[in-house]
Amino acid sequence: MQLIKGDRGGMLSMSDDSVMMKQVQATHAPDGREVDVAPLLHLVEDILNRATLQVEPPLLAGQAHAEMEEKNHQISYSIVLDALSYVIDRISCEIAYKALGGADAHGTTMTILETLTSFQWDAKLVMTLAAFALHYGEFWLLAQIYSSNQLAKSMAILKQLPMIMEHSGPLKPRFDALNKLIKAMVEVTRCMVQFKELPPSYISEDVPALTQAMTHIPTAVYWTIRSVVACANQITLLTTMGHEYALSTTEAWELSSLEHKLTNICDHLKQQLGSCYQHIDDKKNVETFRMLVELFEMTHIDNMKILKALIHARDDPMPIVDGSTKRKVTLEVLRRKNVLLLISDLNISHDELSILEQIYNESRIHTTRLDSQYEVIWIPVVDPSIVWTEAMHKQFETLQSTMPWYTVSHPSVIEKAVVRYIREKWHFRNKAILVVLDPQGRVVSPNAIHMMWIWGSNAFPFTSLREESLWREEAWRLELLVNGIDPMILNWIKDGKYIFLYGGDDVEWVRKFTNTARAVAVASRIPLEMAYVGKSTKKELVRRVLATITVEKLSYFWQDPTMIWFFWTRLESMLFSKIQQGKLDDHDPMMLEIKKLLSYDKEGGWAVLSKGSNIISNGHGNTVLTTLVEYDLWKEEIPVKGFDLAYDDHHKKVHGVTYPCCRFEFPNTAGRIPEGMKCPECHRYMEKYTTFLCCHDEGHPTASPFRGAFEKRCLE
């Protein structure tokens, strides 16, 4: 008893860690051979996981055995064991002999390290743990089967196991302490093997995290082997002295102290390992990003290489979902097709999806037409630094279930490098974009969402050349503003009526404007229709205006809020389309009028007057209302000039006296933002501001409550 307990204070006697580590380092002289000990560690973990006081139920044990058998077929242990079995047996005997001989734990640990001098650090640990597993596994194997196997029973009696098991209750605290320490030993060993498995092509020892880990590895190896010796001593004491041997306070403290020390070591190693994995992940992402850049610069016979690079299938041969059947399919369904990548975050609005679905479904009706043969696939972009939650998963599934086109099966198939490419090369800033790939995978438009909003499927094949062609065919006419939104206004145009298209959020201005305009129409004997199209923001104020228009029957209006959203989205898309093309021509009359209209929306009310398709005047709310109120000043000109010219001339006079401010807002999510813009009124360069908005009246649950915007103003 005294011999076995000979050095219980040994763990504290070596107070100078640096001296001890020099001794440990002196035993390390690897001969250069590389041993893959990962399969052996897997085997050892299986032994130690099953070597417990509680015997597993037969069914569970049978399932575990079947799983182990399957893994045995996959991993061959024979090569490793042929090379290492002699050394493992020798260490096992050394541990048992030194325990019986009363050698101190430090001395035994150093002897084991000297025996393993020619092996790498990870191999030293795994082999020592394997040697312990032989001893510990045999103990528990006999304990679990001696009651049903005569040979095991006879051997168990020699080791006093029946008596130990009969008194297992009082021994439970000891076994619990051993299990905790063994778990810590395995964790440290697993970390060591993981460090060894780090790919040298992506990380070298001069990386700070790996450098720090390397300096702590000798300490980790020493204390893990020291813990193996302590655990082996406990089993030896039980089998040689029987259940009557009680765990002393010093021994209990030693097991607890070792477990605490190994846990701290393991936590530190895991932290460094995590940093190493991050370093490797970053390098792989850079490599993948470069590969993507090169891939998009190459010529391909079809689009499959591009699609497979963007949508990383991993082990899933069917990484996308067919929106019509809700079944998973392979990427082959998109081979040699025009593919529109709908890229957004999980906050894509209902309005956007509703209009896109309408355009998509209309194109499906004409699937026999060559100019309608395209497919859409949703690519959800989620910030890789954000932890994926159940709420996010439900949000993704809800969006996915509403989409009639293809979607990826999960956002995780979009790798970090792909997200970087989408943001850097396609200028994605969380606002939905539509990147167009032709049948060979070439990007023919970095963002066709503006074309889609303006011209729908008529913009097929959604190339930049097609966009230029469509603009050449356009003119500043009322159809440009309302086409595809409301057939009622299109009928007014066909009938050649005068039409006031107006907007704003001031109820009093709306009331004065509509009543005055109606009075002028009656006095001038012209057929006039008016349509309220709301405002691009401030939805709550727009709802109040709509309520007033309804009650007082002031004019025609759009009851569906999505139509109002679509009107303003199309108008903004016209500006963004020109910006994307790099052709924001300050001398283009059509773009000047579009810019005026967008600017007026930010500064109160506005109104556009047309006769049929021809737009007569586009003015700010104040100048338009003043022109109508001053009808008596220009009504005498009507018989001479006609209503159109008389109205326009007087409006220009009013406008020349009171220039309104011009303002444009570009949200940070807009992607491409122009460096500078000229005022559509005075043609001088506008000043640039940064604005922060908090729009509580948007009524959109996914709208950002706090967003930054670049604002350009021209203050006359």
TrEMBL record:
GO terms classed as biological process: phloem development
Transmembrane parts of this sequence: none
Residue ranges the record marks as coiled coil: none
UniProt cross-references to Pfam families, sorted A to Z: SEO_C (PF14577), SEO_N (PF14576)
Signal peptide residues on this chain, from the entry's feature table: none
Residue ranges of domain Sieve element occlusion C-terminal in the record: 466-696
Record-linked InterPro entries: SEO_C, SEO_N, SEOA
Occurrences of domain Sieve element occlusion N-terminal (ranges): 15-300
The protein, known as: Protein SIEVE ELEMENT OCCLUSION B-like
Organism encoding this protein: Linum tenue
